Amino acid sequence: MIIKAMLQPIEGGEVEETTVDCKDYTAGFEQLKRTVPAGIRILSVRPER
What we know:
Elements: E1 2-9, E2 16-21, H1 25-35, E3 40-48
Antiparallel strand pairs: 1-2, 1-3
């Protein structure tokens, strides 16, 4: 499973897309949250199989 997320700096700015390859959604979302640097917010998350 691949999880795609849209990220944006908290102060505003350009939206970026990132992906995480994982076995299930819960583990992938936790991995995504650990890799997002401070000052960046997650705008949306969607799974792709």
